[in-house]
Amino acid sequence: MDTEIRIERVLPATIGRVYDAWTRADLLVQWYCPNPTWELKVDADVRVGGDWMVEMGPHVVRGTYLEVEPPRRLVFSWKWDGTEDEPTRVEVDLAEVADGTRMVLSHTGFADAEDAANHQQGWEPELVRLTDLLNSVGAS
Asked: The whole model's pTM is what?
C-alpha cells in the first residue's frame, strides 16, 4: 500500500461554498471529524503562516497554512499532538465543474502505509459529512 492518500470528489456546491467549508471555523466544526459524537473545536487563521487546530474529542491535530489561494487551493501541514511523527502535508485543490466543484484532496508524507491507511479511514467519513453539509445548505 502507498504512503500517500488521494481522494477526488465532485461536491454539490459552488467553488466558493466548498472553499468556505474548508476555511471557516463555523463550517469546519460541522464536518471536520470522522466521529460525529465527539465534541469538536476548531481554530483557523487562514493565511500563509497562520495556524489551525482541531480538537476532536480526546484528539488534537494542528498545523500551519502553507498556501492559501482562494477559492482554488489550500495547503497545510498536519500533526497530531502527543506523537513524535513528522508533520504530513494536506493539499486541497478545487475546480468548477458542471455538477458543482471537483475537490482533489492529497495527504502526503506518512511514515508508512499503515499510517496512511488509518488517515484514509478518517477522511472518508469526514468527506461524507462535508457532502451532507453542502447538501443541507444548498448549492448556492
From this structure: 0.94
